[in-house]
Amino acid sequence: MSPGFRFAWIGTVLVLAVAVAMIVREVWQTESAAAALKLATQRREWARDRLKMAEQRLTRAERDRKTAAAGVSVMAASTTATTTDGTATSAAGTMTLRVRDGKIRPEVAVATDPALRALHLQVFDEEFAGIWGSLLQRLNLPEAKVAALKALLRAHEERRLDVTAVAGEQQLELNDPAIQKMRSADGALLAKQTLELLGPDDGKIYQQFRRDLSLQGVITDLAAANFQTSTPLTFAESQQLLTILSANSERMSNGFVRPNAVNWESALAQVERSGALSPASVEAFRRLVADQQVHRQISQRWNEIGTTLGGSITGGLMLPNFPALQPKPWTGAATIPKAH
Amino acid sequence: MAAEPAETTGDQFTRALLNDPESIRLRAQLYRLEAGRKYSALYRQLGWSAAQIAQFETIIEAAATEDLRQQGGAQIKGGAMTLSPEIAAQLERVRAEFESRLRAAFGDAALQRFLAVERTSATRAVAEEIAGRVYFTATPLTAGQAAELVRILDANTPPSDPGRTLADREVDWEHVLAQSQGVLAPAQLTALRAIRLKVELEAKRFALLFPEAKR
Predict the structure, then answer these.
(1) Nearest CB to A227; choose among B18, B91, B140
(2) Can you list the alpha helix ranges (DSSP code H) found in chain B?
(3) What is the structure's pLDDT at B8?
(4) What is the SS3 string spanning A232-268?
(5) How far is CA A145 from the centre of its chain?
């Protein structure tokens, strides 16, 4: 039997932590990168001390994974547990799932390793049509403008990786104010460039799409959930749903949708009333909302337990767990070795 | 020899969460909700009524509850979760009872269909992701295309433990992409190429983070 096992982890990240992490990815301030770097250097020593807080290491999550919850999120991050000796042992062995405490931060690895970075950008290129396609359909741009928009977004992604690399080199958290300022500068540049490219009308549609981008995951989930039914999700339905989700989402000061802050109950009520979606899509959405509600309850419960045990929790928590009901129950010694 | 890791506050917290009945109940509910999506095509194939679907999902939820409850006995130390052989045996028992309940409720043929769907969960996830990426195009993924894609992926993936993700399996992507040419439209092929690259990225990132690990 092959030795590699991949385990799912369920983790919860508190509202604030998630909000801050997501804010890092977005833009709402304009400051020069040079000033931010200076500030970053000043904060380096403080940041190093902070990074020594071992318990926070426990909470480090792979933040690029999908979050899915209302109010609070339960993050399904993926990590891998692997036998270290290359052979599976008998059922008499033990199974261990170990929290990583490596020196390479997962969120920084892609930005700093040349091979991973190149691969990441290849993924960006191939995913462009899938992620931005519905916007492009609305805008109906000529091919040259599509190519120019893609180039702008790709350059922005490269700058995002550059800033992440700086955070890694400076030993700063991604939500460090200095890093946020660099992100903001990049975001402002992108906003300016896209407005120049698209003009005010299309630029407005683009901006709205970008501000609602985190809601696209709901749309794709729904499309994936019912594509095999007799009434798969249509583009028109997706636009209606996006409008409802957007109207029922909290927003940050920069206009972007606040992550994990959809009022699911209200959105569901509107979806049911609107008649805009097929019964299959409504049912799929109902299940999705139920899923969000359970995730929210779990997070609330864990927060209660954490508060009972030792006061309020700051940061997030990754809960190791082996997926239930595996066809072949785990056998062998499975350990996640320390990263180098 | 490495020193025994000390118990941390995080360990205590993790243990409390893993053993909290309310948390277990809620997490088991997620398995039920997931089943509704994961096995919806199976429901249609088997022509199950709403009552049969509810019965099936109730069995899943009950078994998941028992499984998670058993996992609560794991040792949590130094940020690591270890299942003893005794717990592993209990998990095996839970799984066997789960299958027995399905067989008793729906018959062996239905159980075998369920197991077949379960075995292809990773490859079906690829089809679902593509469906989510091309639904708005002129060529949304059809059920027939999805079935054929799953067949191609399975044919080009060595048999391995069900439930393992594609990143842990040696998929012959070149063959998959070549054979998919005749099945998928250009936009769908682009989405498939993106998935292949993401799988590769995940595998390489893991290798960088855990150089000692053997896959």
Answers:
(1) B140
(2) 9-19, 21-38, 40-46, 50-71, 85-106, 108-119, 121-134, 143-155, 173-180, 186-209
(3) 75
(4) CCCHHHHHHHHHHHHHCEEECCCCCEEEEEECHHHHH
(5) 28
In tens, the pLDDT along B74-112 reads 888 776 778 888 988 999 999 999 999 999 999 999 999
Residue ranges of A 144-203 with Cβ closer than 8 A to chain B:
none
Reduced to 3 states (helix: H, G, I; strand: E, B; else coil), residue A83 is coil
Tokens encoding A2: 């092959």
Residue located via tokens 């699911």:
A264
Q: What is the mean pLDDT of chain A?
A: 72
Give the C-alpha distances (Å, rounded to integers) separating A146 from A62, A136, B193. 31, 8, 20
Condensed to tens digits (0 to 9), the pLDDT of residues A156-206 reads 999 999 999 999 988 898 889 999 999 999 999 999 999 999 999 999 999
Question: What does the alpha-carbon distance between residue A336 and residue A7 come to, in Å, rounded to a whole number?
Answer: 10
Nearest chain A alpha carbon to B214:
A86
For residues B102 and B29, is the Cβ–Cβ distance under 8 A?
no
Collect all residues of chain A within an 8 Å Cβ-Cβ radius of residue B129: 224
Phi, psi angles (nearest 5°) of residue A260: 60, 35
**Rounded CA separation A172/A320 (Å):** 26
Interface contact A46, partner B, CB < 8 A: no
**Tens-digit pLDDT profile for residues B14-41:** 889 899 999 999 999 999 999 998 998 8
Residue of chain B whose alpha carbon sits nearest to that of A331: B88
pLDDT for the residue B13: 84
Closest C-alpha to A157, from A181, A189, A198, A202: A189
Residues of B in contact with A55 (CB under 8 A): 8-10
- The answer to whether the CB atoms of B84 and A94 lie below 8 A apart is yes
Interface confidence (ipTM) of the complex: 0.87
